[in-house]
Amino acid sequence: AIQASSGPLDVAIQGDGFLVVREPVSGSQLYTRGGNLQVNKQGQLVTATGFRVQGWNEVNGVLDVTQPPTDVLVPVGSLRAPVATTRIAAELNLDASATDGPPPGTFSTSIEIFDSLGQSHVVSVRFEKTANPGEWGYTMTLPDADVATPPAPTVTGLIEFDTDGRMVSPVLTDDPPVLEVEELANGATDLTIRWDLFSGPTPLLTQYSQPSAVASNEQDGFPAAQLIRVGIGDGGRILAQYSNGQQVAVGQLAMASVRNPESMIAVGNNNYQLSARSALPAIGVPGTGGRGQILGGSVEFSTVDIAREFTNLIVLQRGYQANARVVSTVDEISQETINLKR
Fold first, then answer.
1. Main-chain dihedrals φ then ψ at residue 192, nearest 5 degrees
2. Does residue 203 sit in helix, strand or coil?
3. Contact, 112 vs 133, CB < 8 A?
4. Which of 124, 183, 286, 301 could in theory staple to 255 by disulfide, Cβ–Cβ 3.0 to 4.6 A?
5. What global pTM score does this model have?
6. Cα torsion 201, 204, 206, 210: sign
């Protein structure tokens, strides 16, 4: 029976299959369904009895499950490197009732981005209504203080809307605006930031008779971050959560299926090894190739119903007592019969 657990590293196997583990001294490969996992002082994921759990680890941002499985390593107290922003996007509406003035209708928004050192910067985008119907000019830039040699670079252009408020220029096939920032004041790597005006084929900008406003902003950079917690999710993926909100898969548990598991030999500590009659194990990702699924935050308990077994025990005990009394009674009758003959 599978029950929920409060342990972030606890797992349960639903269906057929075994976790793959290695004995800490000999390194021999064994198999288990015990999912009470923990981290040893070397940062390795191990069972409750210290056997090293096998799987795959993230290397340079890539989790390659086609390689042979190895000891699963859990990051502990690690600092994740920052990721520089390369794209931004904003879903917004520009007020269709705005005029070219004087003064002309304007609207400004800003998006926080990050450089290669994890320092934040603010990209500002200012829109200004032109004299042409449905046309707005835009200017995208950074503060002058962010670059070693002011002024900071700017990108300008025009956006056009049709009579239904849909953006018709730029079109999807046009190159998006790109802000290139060289020689940042803090010495970080130069930035190249693409402004995506579309989400798939859908324009992110509209012009309706509503106040100019931003519905959402997004960018793909992250500052440096501390590791907050590590847990195992469904499917056996080891997930690391960082202080900047990132949740990254840093590992994957391996799972083995054996065609005739009844032939395996129990070797103690809830572990099994192959016998001469066992089929070769097929090791891969849970939920594939006929392997069962791994459930995170759960443990597998015995399928025995304790209440029913206690009831059966009481029934058997009562039966034994009744039979014992019958034997005692027969013995007494036999003794009395013998005494009568004397």
1. -130, 110
2. strand
3. no
4. 286
5. 0.69
6. positive
Handedness of CA 22, 233, 270, 65 (dihedral sign): negative
pLDDT by 10-residue block (mean), the chain, 342 residues: 87 95 94 93 93 94 93 86 95 96 94 96 97 96 96 97 96 96 96 96 96 96 92 94 90 96 93 95 94 91 68 88 88 83 66
Sequence-separated (6 or more) residues with CB below 8 Å from residue 2: 12, 14, 295, 298, 299, 300, 301
Long-range contacts of residues 63-70, Cβ cutoff 8 Å, at least 24 apart: 63/249, 63/250, 63/251, 63/252, 65/252, 65/284, 65/285, 69/20, 69/254, 69/283
Distance of alpha carbon 255 from alpha carbon 19, whole angstroms: 5
- Which residue in this structure is represented by tokens 């960082």? 242
Which one-letter amino acid corresponds to residue 332?
Answer: E
How far, in Å, CA of 312 to CA of 306, rounded? 10
Q: Do 329 and 321 contact (CB within 8 A), yes or no?
A: no
- Identify the DSSP state of 259: S
SS3 state at 260: coil
Q: Which of 100, 115, 105, 102 is nearest to 146 (CA)?
A: 115
Report the distance separating Cα 210 and Cα 126, nearest Å: 18
Q: Which ranges of the chain does DSSP label H, i.e. alpha helix? A: 306-341
Give the separation between CA 75 and CA 59, rounded to whole angstroms: 12
Q: How far is CA 108 from CA 129, 139, 211, in A?
A: 12, 9, 12
By the 10 Å C-beta count (0-12 exposed, 13-18 middle, 19+ buried), 37 is classed as: buried
In the 8-state DSSP scheme, what is residue 222? B
